[in-house]
Every structure is written in C-alpha cells, then in structure tokens.
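[worker-b] picked up task from shared queue
[worker-b] task type: protein-ligand structure
[worker-b] ligand name resolved to 6-O-phosphono-beta-D-glucopyranose; SMILES cross-checked against name lookup, match
[worker-b] sequence length check passed
[worker-b] input payload:
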Amino acid sequence: MKKAVIFDLDGVITDTARYHYLAWKRLAEGEGVHFDEAANEHLKGIDRMGSLDLILASSPRSYTADEKLALATQKNEHYKELIATMSPADLLPGAVQALIDCRAAGLRIGLASVSRNAFTVLASLGITDKFDYVVDAATIAQGKPDPEIFLAAATALGVAPEDCFGVEDAVAGVASIKSAGMYAVGVGDPQVLRQADVVIPSLAQFRLADYLAA
Ligand SMILES: O=P(O)(O)OC[C@H]1O[C@@H](O)[C@H](O)[C@@H](O)[C@@H]1O
Ligand SMILES: [Mg+2]
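[worker-b] inference finished, payload out:
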C-alpha cells in the first residue's frame, strides 16, 4: 500500500500553466521567437532558467548571462502580475477533494513544484496547510526531469520512493516521478504523457483506490 502522495502544482492543482504560457509567449515574441502551445508543452515542469534557455535557443541572436537574468526577471514580474488576483476560486475541479481523500486514507502529502512562486500560489489558493511538506524549489539543484525534487519530497516525508506516487501534468514531471522509482499519475492527454502509469483528464477523475495498491 502506498504511504505518500506527491503532487505537482502548476497545471495539476491550479491552472497557472496558462499564466506561465502567456508570460513566456510575450517574452518570446519580444525576442523575435515564435512561441505557441506546442512549444509551451516542452517547457511545462521545466524551471525558469531552463525554460528561458529553451526559448532563446530559437532566437536569431545570442545573450549574455546578465541579459538572460534580466529576461527571466521580466517574465517573472509579468507572471506575478497574472497570479496576483488568484484565490481559492482558482483551484481546479477535484483538487481539494483529492487532497481530502489522500488525508482520509492516512497518506503523507507532499508538493514538488520547481516554481519559486509555489509558496505564494499555495497561500493564494488557501491550501498550504493541506501539505505535510512543500519542497522549496530554491534548494533543488536539478530540475525535472531529474528525480531530485520527488526524492527530496519522499525523504522529507519519511517514505521510501516505492511507497509513494506522484501526480503530474508535464512530460518532464512524469519522467522525474518515474526515474525516482514511483508510480506516476498523469493529468492531461495520454498521447502526451506516455510514460505515466495511468492518465486522467483532471483531478475530478482522481481515483485514490486505484493508485494505493499499484
Ligand atoms: O518561474 P517559476 O515560478 O519559478 O516557475 C518555474 C516553473 O515551474 C513549473 O511548475 C512550471 O510548470 C513551469 O512552467 C515554470 O517555468
Ligand atoms: Mg505542472
């Protein structure tokens, strides 16, 4: 039986994935780089500087480290404007019920987001106290798809990786869960999240009993 669940945040619990997309799109177009939903799919779950590098790889010019930092800051300021009015109304359908079900089943509950805005978003959604442990992205050396962030959450929760399952909307996130040796619940399109053990369209279809014995 599984003893812990580790959730991703952006795109799983709330639709911040949309805001990340809009902020990256404005930045990319300002740099003369075409950016659409398909390109964005490759950035989901990727940390801020990693995402910027992927976008700028298609730019006609090169950038100094200082220029990159300025662009990343600019994107983050725009992103923070977009999330400023978030409230519990921005929780995706089924998210709170999934957290309640996991708690009722006695699971330890972690959050593994590479976003440095995760604590702010959790507070705006009013769900900080629903997690036993939230990984501080600033303490993680290797972003997803590296397993580090999911392993860090499991260690802090005191549960072996094989007794955990992870919940993710990103290809890189599912890869991170699988290389951590955990069962992966994908949220999204099965044609995209091919490495997941099971894929559900949203947390409204979260069926805890199916994952506990997996
Ligand atoms: O820029 P932030 O808030 O630290 O977020 C980093 C990354 O966090 C991830 O959760 C998102 O899926 C990415 O799109 C985002 O780039
Ligand atoms: Mg995500």
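[worker-b] attaching auto-annotations
[worker-b] The longest strand covers residues 164-168.
[worker-b] releasing lock
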